[in-house]
Amino acid sequence: MTPASRPDRPGPAAAAPGRPGPAGRGRRLSDDVTLAAECARAAEDLEGADADTILKWAVDRYHPGLVVASSMGDCVLVDIAARVQPGLPVLFVDTGYHFPETIGTRDAVAARYPVQVLTIQPTRTVAEQDAAEGPRLYERDPDRCCALRKVTPFEVALGRFTAWASGVRREETSARAGTRVVEWDRKRRMVKVNPLATWTQDDVDRYIADHDVLVNPLLYDGYPSIGCAPCTRRVAPGEDPRSGRWSGTGKVECGLNLGED
Ligand code: SF4
Where are the domains of the chain? Predict the structure, then answer.
């Protein structure tokens, strides 16, 4: 796929034959119970398994109803996904506020890896949001801004899938410390897999070096955690890597990774 190829309107996806389909297609609540129980069993069985094995488990059960989420920081999970199942969809939410380096990383991912990059955009452009809500909503109400520009478009896009994979790691924040390798995302009625949940930053750095993984250049320019430009600042060496996100507001998550049971 070339960098210019941006399938903003992805085609239909479905669960593997014989598996419950996406929640948005009238899936029965009894199927939710089955999926949630499957998540609980898999979380125990796969705790301690390597990331390839965890993602392969999800591919075997849910592909083509599985999608990988990426914020285009380090592309470790994309690299693993491209090896485990070439052609997997990778979901990226273009909020309209990203650093140019992040958009460039998205384009480089689409050019280099055999994955299907799905770029999702909010209903309103930044200019339209400014007109409706007033300028710099991210300063006045970042939760609402994230809901409008990240979480809602993301959830609309997820609605066609049965399972999604995230690159969150337990050591990143206290809110993520309890992350299981497989979870039931109750809010979205989806299976969520977290193949990197047990990884440390050293594990990430080693994998990037060993596999020559594509990374957002800002990671090596003082931005160990990268979000939208207005809400991300450089951090000093030794500072909490996520302290540059929504700095001084008390906000620590955009909401994409909240919703697990
Ligand atoms: Fe808005 Fe900031 Fe959230 Fe981006 S990170 S959606 S700019 S509040």
Answer: 23-231
HSE, CB side, 13 Å, CA atoms: give it for residue 123: 8
Among protein residues, the one whose CA lies closest to atom 4 of ligand 1: 228
Catalytic, 254? Answer yes
State in Å: Cα 227 to ligand 1 middle.
8
Q: What is the C-alpha separation between 69 and 55, in angstroms, rounded?
A: 13
- Asked whether the beta carbons of 117 and 4 are under 8 A apart, the reply is no
**CATH code of the domain occupying 23-231:** 3.40.50.620
Render pLDDT for 66-82 as a digit per residue (tens, 0 to 9): 999 999 999 999 999 99
C-alpha span between 113 and 150 (Å, rounded): 24
**pLDDT-based confidence at 187, cuts 50/70/90?**
very high
Confidence grade of residue 261 (pLDDT, cut at 50, 70, 90)? very low
Measured in angstroms, how far is the CA atom of residue 156 from the centroid of ligand 1? Answer: 18
- Which residue has its alpha carbon closest to ligand 1 atom 3? 146
